[in-house]
Design a protein that fits this description.
alpha+beta; 3 domains; six-stranded mixed beta barrel; elongated
């Protein structure tokens, strides 16, 4: 052996199993960054190709970067880079910290034969960088292949605005970003463990005393809990650095989930997806709103034509005299009819306020839905009079469907079923008819529909205006990102608990020798894991809700006045379920390993 650094590849081969989790963390960090920046690069290339085709001139990368779209795209990628970097540092640092704690005797022996503290720090850092030789290439390959797969899905499955996205593009930006992520993450994560290894005295290391250096002044307080529960919680709290890293791993995943959930809400407001979104709309030829000019017979004819998946229409009558029974309200309303399909879409899209009963509106009834400003004194159960008939308010809508900003601006709109509208007004013709087409619809099918229209009506083809592809792609990317982060967090927590148990194997052996049974050992390990989980869950939920609310105010409140923030109860329940699963998974393997080990083996193991 020419140098102490020659021990690095030997140590890597000997501790291959223990280093597996650290390698996975580095691979996933490099993979995520490579995929994120490669997708941003592919999107930029798609935009350049689209603009070149549209304007018949070449657009270079710098020209796209000067646009708002280009800047926002890479700003988002940069934000993700920082988040992934933080997650990677926490996870890799926790893994390295645990492996260093297990190898204190080895480092002590190196100190005894002359290795200085600076050399020991250098050894730990270079050992960490040695993992990058394997992890970074794997992460880059996975990120590039994932980019190809995602581009193929966007081009052939989602289609629409992604029809020109490159399929097998190689992104230098993505690869360089992945390499930088791997190196920076490992170097930052190795700093604290390297200092920890250098601080251990040779005497303590050679004796195998890897536990707390502080002297215990009193016994662990059990309180109302059994001794094994108290000891498990004490183990978690006594190693403050490990407690911080484990709490951070749990908390960061929760914060990322709650924060990115707000981005999903933002895209939902920015690109609203409706079950009643139309591919074709048919209205008055002059485009005048409120003219009922499409006969029900024409609608039924179109319903049976090729390429038609769903067809539904609306009737409208404006400034209808009404008595709303409350002071300060207008004396007229705008009256609309919705077919059953359109009414169903209101519920599917979540547009109804809490407590609304849509079932009362269907058919020829005396119940309607009302749209008004949030501060208007109309509530569910009130009675209003329209066209001389008393109508019961069965529900309210969260926002005005017929205004650009979602606010009613003092007007009151009433939505009735088709049957109720016809009974009140005697009008049977539609003012607008909307058609949802099948996936194999052709331009010829659309032309055939246009050929059967009533005189004075016009067809508008909106198939190219779909935003479902962009929305679906964004949702898939966000959930994919969160899924990978959750998986890495879960594996890291399992690995950290396992290493923590291995580091205390002598203690567990001594406890079993003095009478602690297998069930108590399992409960002690469970108490340690639950302590990490609870602290991480509390911190993550508090910080996640605060950051999420701030992001909600920044992205949504200022742009969509009708939006109202509500406590994300369902998302918090998902968080609790994830924490519970991660905790149970982290307990099982180390507890089983300790139970299966002989008492003498655990006592003698260093």
């Amino acid at each position: 052996m020419k140098s102490y650094l020659s021990l690095i590849p030997i140590s890597a081969r000997v501790r291959r199993r223990q280093n597996r989790m650290t390698l996975l963390c580095i691979i996933f960090a490099v993979f995520l960054v490579t995929a994120v920046f490669s997708m941003a690069d592919m999107d930029m290339r798609m935009e350049m190709a689209r603009l070149t085709e549209k304007h018949a001139q070449e657009f270079n990368f710098q020209a796209i970067m000067d646009t708002t779209i280009g800047q926002n795209l890479f700003l988002l990628a940069g934000g993700l880079f920082i988040l992934i970097l933080l997650a990677g540092v926490l996870m890799i640092s926790g893994s390295i910290n645990s492996t260093v704690a297990q190898r204190t005797k080895f480092f002590g022996m190196m100190r005894c034969i002359g290795m200085s503290r600076q050399q020991l720090k250098r050894f730990v850092r270079l050992e960490a960088l040695n993992w990058c030789k394997t992890a970074i290439p794997i992460g880059i390959v996975l990120g590039t292949v994932s980019t190809w797969a995602l581009c193929a899905v966007l081009r052939f499955v989602v289609g629409e605005e992604f029809a020109m996205i490159p399929l097998f593009g190689i992104s230098p930006i993505g690869m360089i970003s992945g390499i930088v992520m791997g190196l920076v993450t490992v170097l930052l994560a190795a700093r604290a463990p390297a200092r920890q290894a250098a601080k251990v005295s040779p005497m303590a290391a050679v004796s195998g005393n890897t536990e707390n250096k502080s002297r215990t002044r009193h016994a662990v307080r059990t309180g109302r809990f059994p001794i094994e529960i108290s000891l498990g919680a004490h183990h978690a709290k006594s190693a403050r650095k490990n407690l911080f890293l484990m709490t951070g791993s749990f908390a960061l995943s929760i914060i990322l989930f709650l924060t990115f959930s707000v981005l999903l809400d933002f895209v939902g407001y920015l690109l609203p997806q409706s079950a009643a979104a139309a591919d074709i709309t048919i209205t008055d030829e002059a485009g005048v709103t409120g003219i009922n000019c499409l006969s029900p017979e024409t609608v039924e004819t179109i319903r049976g034509m090729d390429g038609v998946k769903n067809i539904f229409g609306r009737r409208s009558l404006f400034d209808v005299p009404a008595e709303l029974g409350k002071e300060g309200l207008p004396q007229t309303v705008d009256l609309f009819s919705f077919d059953d399909f359109d009414l169903d879409a209101l519920k599917k899209d979540g547009r109804l306020r809490k407590g609304s009963d849509l079932s009362e509106v269907y058919g020829n009834t005396g119940s309607v839905l009302v749209i008004c400003d949030p501060d208007a004194p109309i509530r569910k159960g009130d009675t209003i009079q329209v066209e001389g008939e008393d109508l019961s308010v069965a529900g309210m809508l969260k926002a005005d469907l017929f205004s650009e900003d979602g606010l009613s601006h003092g007007k009151v709109s009433v939505i009735a079923s088709s049957e109720t509208f016809v009974r009140l007004t005697g009008i049977t013709d539609y003012s607008i008819v909307m058609v949802q087409t099948t996936g194999d619809v052709t331009d010829g099918d659309v032309a055939a529909i246009s050929g059967v229209l009533d005189e004075g009506t016009a067809l508008r083809d909106e198939r190219e205006m779909r935003t479902s592809g962009t929305y679906t792609a964004f949702v898939l990317c966000v959930y994919g990102f969160l899924g990978i982060i959750a998986m890495v967090t879960l594996l890291n927590i399992m690995n950290s608990i396992s290493l923590s148990v291995s580091a205390r194997s002598k203690q567990y052996g001594a406890m079993r020798a003095v009478g602690m049974d297998d069930r108590q050992v399992t409960r002690m390990i469970a108490a340690e894991a639950v302590t990490y989980a609870l602290s991480g869950c509390v911190l993550g939920c508090i910080v996640g809700l605060v950051v999420g609310r701030m992001l909600y105010n920044l992205l949504i409140d200022g742009r969509f006045p009708y939006a109202v923030w509500a406590l994300p109860v369902s998302r918090l329940l998902i968080v609790l379920a994830f924490v519970a699963v991660a905790t149970l998974a982290a307990i099982y393997a180390p507890a089983k390993r300790i139970r299966n080990m002989a008492i003498t083996a655990t006592i003698n193991e260093l």
